[in-house]
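input
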Amino acid sequence: MTTTSYVIALGSNRRGRHGSPEREVAAALALLAPLAVSPIIQTPPLGPSKRRFANAVAIIETHEYPPALLRRLKAMEHQFGRRRGRAWGTRAIDLDIVLWSGGAWGDKGLTVPHPHFRTRDFVLRPLATIAPGWRDPITGHTVRQLFARLTAPRRAPS
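output
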């Protein structure tokens, strides 16, 4: 396979081997050796979690197809102390494939683009700082456009 690029979303909402959630995200970024990295931002809890998150987005290059990259990211999560189990639970690190320069991918265990990234401020906000022109292969919209739609003021029904 030729080299392709991926957008990886990183998040943490509990201390781990590297320290604070921000340090967990920074340690994972160091292992990914990204081409570009967004600022690490603080975001409110999602789902039933009560802990705030540290989130960032990175662009990486690799020769791996999406399933192989997913296996590598899951192995990294395991090294950071993440255990499978309760959805929405606290985690030292969460690594998600958001976009792939190869377009869309779908199989039993993986869907790219990430099915929920268009509705997640904690992904689109940092991504807009490093790749505003990256196009969603499904909608054709750029990250900048998706972020603008997500953050546009909503009109109250008349």
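quick obs: The CA atoms of residues 13 and 121 lie 16 Å apart.
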